[in-house]
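Exercise: predict the structure of this protein bound to cytidine-5'-monophosphate.
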Amino acid sequence: MPPARPLIAVDGPAASGKGTVARALARHYGVAHLDTGKLYRAVGLALRLAGGDPADAVAATAAAERLDEALLGDPDLMSAMNAQSASIVSAHPGVRAALLARQRAFAEAPAGAVLDGRDIGTVIAPHAPAKLFVTAAPEVRAARRAAELARAGRAQPVEAVLADILARDARDTGRADAPLARAADADLLDTSDLTIDAAVARAIALVEARLRGH
Ligand code: C5P
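Solution:
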């Protein structure tokens, strides 16, 4: 049997390594990659720039319905403050509904695709033949994110980064609509003790087994 279309769902909490793994998988299979967190971040940023409150479901849904593509390249998109706004807006069902079609269309590319986020394997592409749930210990994730922020000239104490990550984890796993969760058929990849190269090699091996064994 030929291998399945490489539609790969990568989910996991903040700074687990899922973005790095997803980008490497997209390169490996020669398919496009969508970082779905950027969509929620753009909605959060749109609200902040307009002086709105991310907790306002009506305003957040309106911002998601007319998503400003230019914000996807904004230097503030990836800031820690905007991550919190993204996690607040992402709990509104209207926001999730507004961003659904775009993500599903991306997943339908005939050549395959890699999407990373929180609900790819459970909601966006539950039929994906290969799913990974990437995780790591909170302290490891905080250290990685702190190093990343420092490299970007946005240094923050690691304790503050850990508190941010734990708050986001709690919000993302606790929300009613499409919470962060491991799909029943997702392979677990704990990157706590892995180098980037080892995590990528393991991810490719897991995906390859799924695509060939479908
Ligand atoms: O992946 P990233 O950390 O950039 O995502 C920012 C926030 O967007 C997450 O904390 C989460 O609340 C939200 N998100 C989501 N569903 C996704 C991707 C991201 O709710 N598929």
